Automatic annotation (TrEMBL), chains A, B:
One of its GO terms (cellular component) is cytosol. It catalyses: tRNA(Pro) + L-proline + ATP = L-prolyl-tRNA(Pro) + AMP + diphosphate. Its EC number is 6.1.1.15. Its main location: cytoplasm. Keywords: Aminoacyl-tRNA synthetase, ATP-binding, Cytoplasm, Ligase, Nucleotide-binding, Protein biosynthesis. It comes from Mesosutterella multiformis. Pfam families: HGTP_anticodon (PF03129), tRNA-synt_2b (PF00587), tRNA_edit (PF04073). This is Proline--tRNA ligase. Consists of three domains: the N-terminal catalytic domain, the editing domain and the C-terminal anticodon-binding domain.
């Protein structure tokens, strides 16, 4: 490809509303163009990256035995009513009426449609397993779309769905997809980590997110450098820390702590370490009677060590909170505790009013500090079994760096990631709701077991940049770069020799199937280099009269622009090919 | 590909609501699956066809210098308001509000977005020409979607847009696209015809439709077998027929014609040929004064020879009707003519009430019959210049077979076609409305000249079937067949020899890059052949023990299934390759 035949449009400055580096760089490099909030055009340079990611995904899906189809973007409401998602999905589900006033949605995913296809097409165990996927535009009406293509409203996604005869077979399909995803992300050239993730209301332990490691990631990952353990912070099990419970040495004592409404402030005043304080988090679960009348909310007190933080996903699994919860209002807190927030504690509560759960790491504390349920006062020297009953215990906190790994093989580290893929065992959630069954060997009707498997194609592009960039711009891995090699002539129109070498090299590299672009725009070296450094083409060849005097061209890798190598013109193709293999 | 790894699902019967053969066959062959009216899933077998068509289109677009991008499916209303299409586009434009109550549309095409991109990106004459295209899902909320993928609501379209400095340069872009389209449709292997088409309100003569020839087509095409002339019936020029006007030989005479309210009935009664009668068609154009008050409609009388039919597109170009027209109501007719329809004519009308236009082939008639403007009566022996003034003349009728070709090189024939592509010179319609300008060499701001170029990807698939099918099913051209070669084993599981030859042949053909499917489903020959004949794979190889005794396999082409050829196993790959070249 020659640059003048292509469409290159770079900007010096990113627009003010671009809030992360990938978005800024993609806009500056002319890869995407904003049309509306969270809605982008993929400009030619950006579309090349998208297509390369798509092709890797497609090839590995097909290699794993999955078959591609294409479901409609516009889907009738009926199926969504049947699955229950018409009710449950919030305003992120874009709903509209057609000219005949029938309800439709723009697909955010296609579980309903694929289950509808499966229940029509799959009738016998002989047809199983079936694994179908599509690469298609999706829409989620995010309240606050941001981060460019990372959290857009319109985005490109690969979504795949497996159908199996039972949970064992579904497990095999799941493993097959897990392996395919590892191959896919390995091929992209990105540093990633598959992490265990929460399965929500589905249950079971088959949910893995594929996280591209990047400091700017929204997600926090806990992993053990000494083992295979890795989990999303939401799921990562926090084991008990702090050792055995020591015997009580202090008497419980009410101490004035005016204005000290946080653990840090209280322990500072009392001269105690933060780990001696217990934090009281009050949650509420709204209740209704059978006729739908609103009842007073259930109040749950969560006790956490002062330096720990609540894990809301874990809290949501407590029996009292499993139908949804929120933080209690000040009025509810005043009623149940007799005090305003900041001075709450578990001592002296009415168990009929407040259900208490302690995090694992609280239960072995002694002589600790809690709020006195009276504004401006705390209790110190508090001990379980003596000053208050032994509470129920659960894993309720987020892990922190240095926590023991749940597999017992070392300690946890934390890092940030960007979720680019998700494999998920669905079980019979959709197939049961939509009556997708097959006949087994004995002619007995059974419900299909399903899995779903997503990859955010456009998100992979954003994550790649978050992971790979410098002050000059993006740095693409070879496999998903818009172009693999950029040829930069010094005086393309001025020097016949330069033009001839560039043209020949371009044609030879292209003939080898290498994605090469020759910059024939006749720019000065500064702006030309700046463009290709911004766009992040991984391999650069500079051809100028000075080098050609020695029959040489200059090579540099985008990651190491200072380490230039001079290469004989006749060796250039072989040289580039060796660099691409490396 | 082996059949068991793929997803094959054929039906004996098409659903009752499938109204044309391509829709019936695509559903029966498991290529598409209806989700809602005019909304289909492309099942794996169908998607393969779509992808092959897409790839041909993409390759030829790129070869012609166009650059691919991808615009959003969801587009903000603002741009559509700016272009004027928010008002003008009817209910086929799907409009909806997002969660913030902002207006959006689902794109039926992308003129607005591409013009918005152009006005931001194209600033200088140095950047021109620019030609951008996308292959993307579109939505048109058809009132009555039908014909499967041919007139669906959701469909896949290639839409491209060119930007040029002036009309001359735009003409060159137009020619380039015209040539690219010829290459594209030649490569699909379909019989097609580029035909001149109407340019509507844009004017000029640069509009060509690409019509796939099929008896079931919705469009009528006039062409001259002796020249290059071909035009959509809407545009095809009707030259004057019937020779010079003969002198009047009869007196005008009022004759009773009770109940004879059609030309055929009147001439039958009078014993005259139909070509001696003149048909009166009354059109009306609604008028408003400057303050928007409704005025009485303008009434226009069109005179056509009794055997001719009105061409509404041509009528719409008359000065009185160019802002839109309709057929006059009975009340309007009564008021202007004093008679109810069926007995209308041009004699004795008030020119202030009714404007008269005669078709070219009426003006040279003499002694003709018209309605008497009195129920139950006609006038015979009517002559222009004597019984009524000479009328204004225009080309107002549809051509018929046998009409002289407008290029003077023979006579016209008619055939039916399916429009699969359209190249269109837009001029400055969008660029002017949306202020898309560039600076020329003298630094002067000029409006960009545009062209737009569409190909209905999913429609090509339907048209291919309409053109190529028989009682057994579809017959795909090699280039867009879901698979090129089907290997049908007779006893894949029963005979080791059959399995071995099939597997080896499959692998060798696949290694040659040939799209082969091996049917390892172990079906009986009848159902297996029926499936592949229905699906329409163009080349079939049958491998059975009987043939293998002589070291031979059987080849048949889908078009000529009775002409089987026996081929030595060792020659099979070369033989198939020679068939694919042919």
């Amino acid at each position: 490809m020659k640059a003048r035949q292509f469409f290159i449009s770079t900007l010096k400055e990113a627009p003010a509303d671009a809030d992360i580096v990938s978005q800024q760089l993609m806009i500056r490099a002319g890869m995407i163009k904003k049309l509306a909030a969270g809605v982008y055009t993929y400009m030619p340079m950006g579309l090349r990256v998208i297509r390369k990611i798509e092709n890797i995904v497609r090839e590995e899906m097909v290699r794993s035995g999955a078959v591609e189809l294409l479901m409609p973007i516009v889907q009738p409401a009926e199926l969504w009513v049947e699955s229950g998602r018409w009710e449950k999905y919030g305003p992120e589900l874009l709903r509209f009426k057609d000219r005949h006033q029938r309800d439709f949605v723009i697909q955010p995913t296609s579980e309903e449609v694929i289950t509808d296809i499966a229940r029509q097409e799959i009738t016998s165990w002989r047809q199983l397993p079936v694994n179908l996927f599509q690469i298609q535009t999706k829409f989620r009406d995010e309240r606050r779309p941001r981060f460019g293509v990372m959290r857009g409203r319109e985005f490109i996604m690969k979504d795949g769905y497996s159908f199996d005869r039972d949970a064992d077979a579904a497990g095999k399909s799941y493993e097959t997809m897990f392996d395919a995803y590892c191959r896919i992300f390995n091929r992209t050239g990105l540093v990633f980590r598959p992490v265990a993730a929460d399965t929500g209301s589905i249950g079971g332990n088959r949910s893995n997110e594929f996280q591209v490691i990047a400091d700017t990631g929204e997600d926090l990952i806990a992993y053990c450098p000494d083992s295979q353990y890795a989990a999303n912070i939401e799921l990562a099990e926090a084991v008990q820390v702090g050792g055995e419970r020591a015997a009580a040495t202090e008497e419980m004592q009410k101490v004035p702590t005016p204005g000290r409404d946080k653990c840090e402030l209280v322990t500072e005043l009392l001269g105690l370490p933060l780990t001696k304080s217990v934090k009281s988090v009050v949650l509420a679960s709204d209740e209704r009677d059978e006729e739908g009348n609103v009842l007073p909310a259930k109040i749950v007190l969560i006790l956490l060590r002062g330096d720990h933080s609540l894990n809301e996903v874990k809290a949501g699994k407590l029996p009292e909170l499993k139908n949804g919860f929120r933080f209690a209002t000040e009025a509810e807190i005043l009623k149940a505790f007799g005090s305003k927030p900041g001075y709450l504690g578990p001592v002296g509560l009415d168990p009929k009013e407040v259900k208490i759960y302690a995090d694992r790491s609280v239960i072995n504390m002694s002589d600790f500090v809690v709020g006195a349920n009276e504004e401006g006062f705390h209790l110190r020297g508090v001990n379980f079994g003596r000053d208050l009953p032994e509470p129920e215990v659960a894993d309720l906190r987020n892990v922190v760096e240095g926590d023991p790994s749940p597999d017992g093989k070392g300690t946890l580290k934390l890092q940030r990631g960007i979720e680019v893929g998700h494999v998920f065992y669905l079980g019979t959630k959709y197939s049961e709701a939509m009556h997708a069954t097959y006949l087994d060997e004995e002619g007995k009707s059974r419900v299909l077991e399903m899995g779903c498997y997503g990859i955010g194609i456009s998100r992979v592009a954003g994550a790649a940049i978050e992971q790979n960039h410098d002050d000059r711009g993006m740095i693409w891995p070879d496999a998903i770069a818009p172009f693999t090699v950029a040829i930069c002539p010094m005086g393309y129109k001025r020097s016949e020799a330069v033009q001839k070498v560039c043209d020949e090299l371009h044609d030879k590299l292209a003939a080898e199937g290498i994605d090469v672009i020759l910059d024939d725009r006749d720019l000065r070296p500064g702006p030309m280099f700046a463009d290709w450094e911004l766009i992040g083409v991984p391999h650069r060849i500079v051809v100028g009269d000075r080098g050609l005097k020695n029959g040489e061209i200059e090579y540099a890798n985008r990651r190491t622009l200072d380490q230039k190598e001079m290469v004989k013109v006749e060796d250039a193709v072989a040289f580039i090919k060796s660099k691409l293999k490396a």
